Amino acid sequence: MKKKFVIGSRESALAVVQSRMVLAYLKEHCPELEPELLTMKTTGDKILDRRLDQIGGKGLFVKELDRALGEKRSDLSVHSLKDLPMEVPEELPVVYYSKREDPRDVLVLPEGRKTPDLSLPIGTSSLRRILQLQEIYPGARFESVRGNLQTRLRKLDEGQYGAIILAAAGMKRMGYEDRISRYFSIDEVIPSAGQGILALQGRKGEDYTFLEGFSDREAFYAAAAERAFVRWLDGGCSSPIAAHAQISGDILELWGLYYEEETRTCRKGRKTGPVCQAAAIGIELARELSEAGEKDCVAEEHSAAAGQVRENGGGRNRTGEEKDR
Ligand SMILES: NCc1[nH]cc(CCC(=O)O)c1CC(=O)O
Asked: Could you name the CATH architecture of 3-98+197-215?
């Protein structure tokens, strides 16, 4: 008799495609298991008209999945790592990280267009994206767009936005790659920590080694560095932070962005070190950027610091912003 193995997933099309990747792996490599999906609507999926930081942040997307896993109605949760809160319950640890899909952010245009109409707003709900895109599209207006990928694409095609910004990973996994009109390099738009990586979350003490082949060494180290960076800076608040690590051989290179609400200053930095020091590199870069901040604050009393976020972006568009969703 095959043993049932239930994979818990959000019910959005992207979440299901991602969970099916794990399901397909199990079907191919673990003939003794009978994998199936258990999809659920999370609180975050139901509330679409408010900013995430007003309704409770990332945790809203995982609570239902955590409960199912804890109550053994499922055996594994599959998450986009970037949507997973920094702290997961001790009894429900991340057991593996998938190989990373394209981590870049991309520009998507209304169907049939070749260039963005910048008299219309650019759709994104992420202050991290807005901060960096202001440099690329000076003078552009930004407006929140929430909902799942299909909903966002529909709103774009209906003419509400000149363009929208999305993660390449979701577009590629959904088979929408041909709608991508521009890829932003890692230097242009530093991605959200974990973007493109799937996190497999299990129950503490259980054996998941049959999934080892699905996991990826580079993603593991990148996740460690990126999440250490965010954890050190965030401390539960909702300021925009970006972190992306690349690994070549035994060297890890980490890009970080930190925005200080108080002084409205955006700082980017980069740090390199041995992969085995992944988390320490994240903490060091976080510390460097926030300490640079203390100096900037003083300087700013005398002159508007370079790199400061322009008033028209950081200010006017505040309503309707949340972190990446
Ligand atoms: N915020 C929603 C979300 N969560 C994960 C992805 C894409 C897949 C990934 O980054 O792993 C997306 C869509 C997007 O930001 O465009």
From this structure: 3-Layer(aba) Sandwich (3.40)
Please choose, from the candidates 90, 39, 87, the residue with its C-alpha nearest in 3D space to the C-alpha of residue 203.
Answer: 90
Q: What pLDDT digit, counting tens, does each position of 81-95 carry?
A: 999 999 999 999 999
Structure token digits, residue 150: 């299909």
- The atom number, within ligand 1, closest to the CA of 197 reads 11
* CATH topology (fold) of 225-300: Double Stranded RNA Binding Domain (3.30.160)
**Cα 324 to ligand 1 centre (Å):** 7
CA dist 80 and 195 (Å) reads: 7
Instruction: Please say if 83 is a catalytic residue.
Output: yes
Residue type, 59: G
- Ligand 1 probe mutation, 48, 80, 184, most atoms within 8 A of CB: 80
User: Which residue's alpha carbon is at the smallest distance from atom 2 of ligand 1?
Assistant: 325
pTM of the model: 0.88
- What is the ipTM, given to two decimal places? 0.96
